């Protein structure tokens, strides 16, 4: 099974290396990630004020890498104020043994030893005009300081983003770069994540996506989403699903639905489409989503869909559209 996963990654790296480094990914069409200060209100769209993003660097990449953050501060442009800018956000890069493979870093509750591994770099940002609307660069980082995880494509690093204090929403984007001053992609690298917290588009014409990979152990997927505010709908496109609807949440609540995996979907990606309400698109909508397999393990999603963006195949799909 492991060999198959490695083969899948090799295929992906060969075909899908372009635009692999921005997070949110190019094909995801998500404007910003978001993390609120730890005194924030969950009703604003962050269930627990921590976000974890993993980066994978091909094993044969030897030159330094940089993790760049756009608008790391919480203030001024791009951020969501509650009463006054009082929020501090800590960004920390981890590498080394256990940093990415520790199961506590791959759970939905961010409890236990999710800050496992070796802390490489850390910085806390408040409301700081110096960084407002600008890029901040972590690095240079030696790729050999990553955790060696062939099943995740190479040397891996973990970025933990925590709302250290305050109650505002910090919006930001990430880029894995081989240059400290500009965004220059690392060939074959990509990001993955087990739980995702982000800001939706304001416009009712936008469709955002996430791309979980279904390995051949997965029998069913339970998706859970938080604070969707009933803003449009969520549906699945895969080789055998042509718009199966997922249950969506209202304000400050979780909702879940479980979906069976067809044989044809094994070892392929799903395209989960987040389609905004056309009649009443909600502004400033922050949401959380994660997926579990039948064992309760979280499934990774990838900044670049493994095997490409899945398309429904009429010759495979047999079920009527629900
Ligand atoms: Ca800002
Ligand atoms: Ca920000
Ligand atoms: Ca929301």
Tell the overall outline. globular
Radius of gyration: 19 Å
Overall pLDDT level: 93
Overall structural domain count:
1
Please tally the β strands and state the result: 22
Salient structural properties:
nine-stranded antiparallel sheet; binds calcium ion; single chain; 1 helix; seven-stranded antiparallel sheet; 322 residues; mainly beta
Structure explained in plain terms:
The protein has 322 residues and is mainly beta. It has one domain (7-302). The chain contains one helix and 22 strands. It has one helix spanning 2-15; strands at 22-23, 32-36, 50-57, 65-70, 88-95, 118-125, 135-141, 147-149, 154-165, 169-177, 190-193, 195-199, 207-210, 213-214, 220-226, 233-237, 242-246, 254-260, 268-269, 271-275, 286-292, 301-302. Strands 1, 2, 4, 7, 10, 12, 15, 18 and 21 form a nine-stranded antiparallel sheet that branches. Strands 3, 5, 6, 8, 9, 11 and 22 form a seven-stranded antiparallel sheet that branches. A four-stranded antiparallel sheet has the order 13-20-16-17, with no helix packed on it. The protein is globular, with a radius of gyration of 19 Å. Mean pLDDT is 93; it is low at 13-18. It binds calcium ion (3 copies). One calcium ion binds at residues 71, 73, 75-79, 132.
């Amino acid at each position: 099974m492991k060999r198959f996963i490695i083969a899948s990654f090799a295929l992906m790296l060969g075909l899908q290396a372009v635009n692999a480094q921005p997070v949110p990914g190019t094909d995801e069409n998500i404007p910003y990630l978001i993390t609120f200060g730890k005194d924030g209100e969950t009703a604003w769209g962050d269930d627990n004020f921590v976000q974890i993003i993993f980066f994978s660097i091909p094993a044969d990449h030897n030159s330094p890498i940089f993790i760049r953050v756009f608008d790391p501060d919480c203030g001024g442009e791009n951020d969501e104020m509650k009463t006054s800018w009082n929020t501090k956000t800590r960004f920390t890069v981890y590498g080394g043994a256990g940093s990415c493979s520790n199961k506590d870093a791959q759970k939905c509750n961010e409890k236990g030893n999710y800050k496992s591994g070796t802390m490489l770099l850390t910085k806390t940002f408040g409301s700081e005009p110096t960084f407002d609307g600008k890029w901040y660069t972590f690095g240079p980082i030696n790729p050999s300081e990553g955790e060696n995880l062939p099943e995740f494509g190479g040397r891996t690093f973990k970025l933990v983003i925590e709302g250290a204090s305050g109650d505002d929403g910090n919006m930001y984007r990430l880029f894995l770069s081989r240059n400290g001053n500009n965004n220059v992609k690392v060939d074959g690298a990509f990001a993955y994540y087990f739980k995702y917290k982000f800001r939706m588009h304001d416009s009712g014409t936008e469709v955002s996506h996430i791309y979980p990979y279904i390995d051949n152990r997965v029998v069913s997927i339970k998706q859970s989403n938080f604070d969707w505010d009933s803003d449009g709908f969520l549906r699945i496109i895969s080789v055998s699903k042509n718009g199966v609807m997922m249950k969506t949440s209202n304000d400050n609540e979780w909702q879940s639905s479980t979906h069976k995996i067809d044989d044809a979907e094994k070892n392929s990606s799903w395209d989960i489409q987040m389609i905004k309400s056309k009649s009443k698109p909600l502004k400033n909508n922050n949401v959380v989503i994660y997926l579990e397999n039948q064992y309760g393990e979280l499934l990774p999603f990838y900044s670049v869909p493994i095997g490409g963006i899945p398309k429904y195949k009429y010759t495979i799909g047999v079920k009527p559209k629900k």
